[in-house]
Structures are given as C-alpha cells and as structure tokens.
Design brief:
The protein is α/β, with parallel strands linked by helices and 349 residues long. It has 2 domains: 4-217, TIM Barrel; 222-348, Lyase, Ornithine Decarboxylase, Chain A, domain 1. The protein contains 11 helices and 18 strands. The chain has helices at 9-22, 39-49, 62-65, 89-92, 104-111, 132-138, 142-145, 164-177, 191-200, 212-215, 275-283; strands at residues 4-7, 27-30, 53-56, 72-75, 95-99, 116-121, 148-154, 183-187, 205-210, 222-234, 239-240, 245-246, 251-257, 294-299, 302-306, 314-320, 331-334, 345-348. The chain has an 8-stranded parallel barrel with strand order 2-3-4-5-6-7-8-9. Strands 10-13-16-15-14-17 form a 6-stranded antiparallel β-barrel. Helix 6 (132-138) runs parallel beside helix 8. It is elongated and about 80 Å long. The structure holds pyridoxal-5'-phosphate. Pyridoxal-5'-phosphate is lined by residues 29, 31, 76, 155, 187, 209-213. Pfam families: Ala_racemase_N.
C-alpha cells in the first residue's frame, strides 16, 4: 500500500483524444517524471494518439522513450558540446536537436553530419535562444553547414492568452529570416491564439508542444491517494516523532504513506496568522500556532497538519479530537504537484 495515482482511463483517454483533435501538429511533451505518469507510459500513449513527434526534456530521457514511441524525438534542452547525444545511427536519425546559440550549429554538425535540428529563438522568457539578429546572420550559412533544419522553436512564458503581440513580433522575425523551413515549434499558446496565428501566418506550420494541458488537463480523471499505515490515540502532552515533540492537544496520530522520497514536502503554514489571531489560536489549542505545517493529505473532509516534517516514505499527521478517525488500510486523498511527485503505483483503469 503506497502513494498511488489512479487514473479514470476512459475519461483520461477521451480528454487526450479531444486535445489531439483540436490541436493539429500536436507535439506531446514527455519529460521529468512523465508528469507523474512515467515517461514509458506517456511514450506509448503518444504513439496511440498518433503523434508524429514527441518532445523529451533531456538526451538522457531518450533511452526510456525511444523504444516505446516510433516517431521523431525532439530534445528540448539545447544541444551543447558537453551533451552526450545518441551515436546509434538508427536512433540519431529520429532525433531533432535544439540549437540555441549560433556557435553550436557548426559544432553539432561536425560531430553529427546530417543532424536534424531546430533553431531556438529567444523570447521574453530569456531561458535559451538566439536573437533575431543572430538567426538572420546564421540563415545564409545553413546550406553550407548542412544538416536538416526542421524549423524554429519558441518557448513562451505562461501568459494565459497574453502572447499574441509577442508571438506576432517573433513570427515576423522568423519570416524575415527566409529560412528553408516553414515550421515553428511553440509552447503555451491558447487554442484561440493558435487559430489567430494560423490565419495570420498561413504559410507557417505551427507545431504546439504541450505537456501539462495534455496529460494533466482533466484533473477530474486523476486521483492521488495515500494509505493509512497506523493510527495511535494521543493525549495532550504525549511525546511522538523523531524530534520528541509533544501533542498540543488530544486526538490521533496517523502514519500515512508518502514522504520526502515521493516529493512530499513541507508547505509553509497556511494563512499567516497575525499576533492576535495567533494568541486566539493558541488559546484554542490551534495547530498552526504550534508551528506545524499543513500536509497535502485530507482526512474527514479537511486538509490535515503534519505532526512533524515528512519522513522518507511516510508522514505523521495530527488529527484533532472530534474528527472522524480512519482505519489502517483506508485511503486518503492527497493534493500533490504531479510533476514533482514520484508515485509508487500508477493505475490506469
Ligand atoms: C516543458 C516544456 C514544454 C511543455 O510545457 P507544459 O507547460 O508542460 O505544457 C514546452 N516547451 C518546452 C521548451 C518545455 O521545456
């Protein structure tokens, strides 16, 4: 019994198909912990969705994804001379590198003649990418350098619909570079923004890179649960835990699955209490006043407090008197960040 992600498979697959249908050229992004699902699972799912290309974050992620997805593999982290990209010719043919500095292109093509690549243009994110001036300067050299240009990549901030002005400026820069590819790989555009850009730049082919809105876009299909491993009655003043704390009030101590190894961390105590509120809370035996933090675990309809910082694979929670006490083996709902959680089990129905 463990920290588990259960997926309503029918509902999840319906959502994935709906996103794929309204997003022509969709490039599913699979990186990190596979958005909680695992890279291997998303790789197969992307194939099932009919994607021609997926994006991975790192070269190191290719071995897990490549055997499970038959198409092209865009690597989002820009190529650098110190990266170890795959030498295996069958795999190398499927890899599309991201080049974000002009000097990296000749270096890449010297090491991997014929390599496929996208040129990343800097956006207001300022994470990676060359300037428009650098792109224009590089454009006339592309034929001589060789390789295969697969388009321009733009990584946009999470502006929730506020991108049009920036993207229009960037696309104008792309068109002005007069490149031998009309493909633009973009992230974080809304459906409405993509439709407008498709109409305004009809000769460009947009390839939307999407992770969160695809895999995690229908939260109602997902449920995270932890298992109650132990329940101990507590009297006010009883000691517990690694740190010899004492119970601030009567209740129960719950030991539940999920700890630091799963990415369960301490959150700051919620609702920063003013002095007066704190005094009132202390008078009531409030747990926030006792310096405790809220856990991501829900018991009897409420988010409960950590009794002490989470352990490696389990957490201790305080359940005040009066709350319904779960039994060993019961499952508790947990609210976690999917991209930062390592689940013990993922069950797709
Ligand atoms: C992670 C990432 C994406 C996908 O982002 P989501 O917010 O998960 O959709 C797209 N492009 C790049 C370059 C990324 O690093």
């Amino acid at each position: 019994m463990s920290l588990e992600l259960s997926v309503d498979g029918e509902r999840w697959r319906t959502h994935l198909r709906a996103v794929a249908e309204r997003t022509p050229g969709l490039v599913p992004v699979l990186k990190g912990n596979g958005y909680g699902f695992g890279l291997h699972r998303l790789a197969r799912r992307a194939g099932w969705l009919g994607a021609s290309t997926v994006a991975v974050g790192l070269y190191e992620e290719l071995p897990e994804v490549a055997p499970r997805f038959p198409g092209d593999l865009l690597v989002l982290t820009p190529w650098r001379p110190f990266h170890e990209d795959p030498a295996d010719p069958a795999l190398a043919k499927r890899v599309v590198h991201t080049v974000s500095r002009p000097e990296d292109l000749p270096a890449l093509l010297e090491r991997r003649p014929g390599a496929r690549f996208v040129l990343e243009l800097a956006t207001s994110m300022r994470r990676h990418g060359m300037t428009a001036a650098e792109l224009w300067a590089l454009a006339p050299d592309l034929r001589r350098l060789g390789g295969r240009l697969e388009g321009v990549a733009l990584h946009l901030p999470l502006a929730h619909g506020g991108h049009l002005a920036e993207v229009e400026r960037l696309l104008t820069d792309v068109v002005a570079a007069d490149l031998p590819s009309r493909t633009v790989w973009v992230s974080h555009l809304t459906d409405a923004e993509r439709d407008r850009l498709r109409a305004a730049y009809a000769d460009l082919e947009l390839r939307p890179r999407t992770g969160t809105d695809l895999w995690l876009g229908d939260r109602g299909a997902l449920r995270v649960t932890s298992t109650v491993l132990d329940v101990h009655p507590l009297r006010r003043g009883d000691p517990y835990g690694y740190r010899g704390r004492t119970a601030p009030r009567d209740g129960h101590l719950l030991v539940v699955s999920g700890g630091t190894a799963h990415g369960i961390g301490l959150e700051a105590p919620q609702g920063q209490l003013g002095l007066k509120d704190r005094a009132r809370s202390v008078a009531k035996g409030g747990l926030d006043a006792a310096g405790l933090s809220r856990s991501p675990f829900w018991v009897d309809g409420k988010q409960r407090w950590f009794a002490e910082p989470p352990h490696m694979q389990a957490s201790m929670l305080l359940l005040p008197q009066g709350a319904g006490v779960p039994e060993v083996g019961d499952r508790l709902d947990a609210r976690v960040r999917y991209t930062a959680t390592a689940f013990d089990r993922v069950v797709v129905s």
